[in-house]
From TrEMBL:
Family: Belongs to the PITHD1 family.
Name used for this protein in its record: DUF1000-domain-containing protein
Cited InterPro entries: Galactose-bd-like_sf, PITH1-like, PITH_dom, PITH_dom_sf
Start and end residues of each stretch annotated as Disordered: 1-30
Species in which this protein is naturally found: Polyporus arcularius HHB13444
Gene3D superfamilies: PITH domain
Occurrences of domain PITH (ranges): 21-198
An annotated GO cellular component: nucleus
Any one Pfam family match given in the protein's UniProt record, by short name: PITH
Highest taxon in the source lineage: Eukaryota
Length: 218
């Protein structure tokens, strides 16, 4: 049913068993589109960086090629390398990356995934080992790239690094999506009580369930 990209830890398998993307119900059941903080999607070295959120599309627009993000061919320092950072509105247990790229030699050679990476710098990326990376085959279908769950158990953002094209001066991405489970980000509550002058009467009211409690100094 699904086309699997079994690459192991940073290894790239040669077989890509493609179909035409996940079934409709899979797209609706655990597609994380509504859990992406689209306003804060950041693209670096893109021809039009402000268009980063436009490739984060709802499931029914995944095949639309009128909106896309392209690398900046004028930046000689970075060639056609570029970065897309996608934050979530909570914590995500990531299952798969969905990607539509191309056409032809404008397809990136591969994509490297970095979870929870706050710094967006090309030199930083170059020095880091990605949690996982995948070769990207040419084609018009939505590629579904299954990640290793142990490496993406509690993800608040994913940074995608596209290092090069398959021959063209630029790379192009039409659609980026994710499959997985979302949960609210949990913070430990911090409670601070400020008292200019302790009021023992208030403390007596707080006593409640603890009958052995005694006010300071008693």
């Amino acid at each position: 049913m699904s086309h699997n990209h079994n690459h192991g830890d940073g290894c790239h398998g040669e077989s890509h068993d493609h179909d035409h993307g996940p079934p409709e119900d899979v797209g609706h059941r655990d597609n994380l589109f509504s859990r992406i903080d689209r306003d804060n999607v950041v693209a670096l070295n893109a021809e039009e960086p402000g268009k980063g959120p436009e490739v984060i599309k709802p499931w029914d627009k995944r095949s639309d090629e009128t909106m896309y993000l392209e690398s900046d061919a004028d930046d000689q320092m970075c060639d056609n390398h570029w970065i897309l950072r996608i934050p979530f509105t909570g914590a995500v247990k990531l299952r798969a990356l969905l990607l539509k790229a191309g056409p032809a030699d404008q397809t990136p050679t591969k994509v490297a995934l970095f979870p929870n990476l706050e710094h967006l710098d090309f030199s930083d990326i170059a020095d880091r080992k990605p949690a996982q990376e995948f070769n990207i085959p040419q084609g018009r279908d939505i590629g579904e790239y299954h990640v290793m769950p142990a490496k993406f158990p509690n993800v608040t953002s994913v940074t995608l690094f596209f290092p090069a094209s398959q021959g063209a001066d630029t790379t192009r991405i039409y659609y980026v999506g994710f499959l997985g489970q979302w949960s609210e980000r949990k913070f430990e509550p911090v409670m601070t009580v400020y008292e200019s002058k302790p009021n023992l009467a208030d403390h007596e009211k707080i006593q409640g369930l603890n009958e052995n409690w005694s006010a300071p100094g008693t």
